[in-house]
Amino acid sequence: MFSKGSKPNRSGGSGRSSAPSIIASDLHIVGDLKCDGEIQVDGSVDGDIVSHKILVGESATIKGELVADVIRVHGTVHGQIRAREVTLARTARMVGDIQHEELAIEQGAYLEGHCRHVESARVKADERPALSAPGADASLTAGEDG
Fold this sequence. Notes:
Largest sheet: 9 strands, parallel
Order of helices and strands: EEEEEEEEEEEEEEE
Distance between the termini: 45 Å
Radius of gyration: 16 Å
Number of domains: 1
Number of strands: 15
Number of helices: 0
Structural class: mainly beta
Strand content: 35-45%
């Protein structure tokens, strides 16, 4: 009945292998979003987003903090980004600070803010900040072991 075999989980397991959750271009969300998988935002969000992977589409506008392992920005973000991998595409408009382990900025991208390289910036699920907690940026695992 229960085995330790390596059969794939058809339900998607942690949600990381399932299809992304999509916020359509005609949708405006006021509030925080949390997802274990991938979120693609093409509309607008006034709130924080915590996920494994975040894709900000060209038509997207986000006002809030983004926390994920991987973030790719094609649209507009007003707020802080904390991620292991961050890419600002040529169409990106970023106003805010970025904490990252890896950062790529394509020619033509707009960035107004500070970028800070952080070792081991991967944000583990149990270390992700409460979305409404002030001073949430202290939860990165930056150089805690020495």
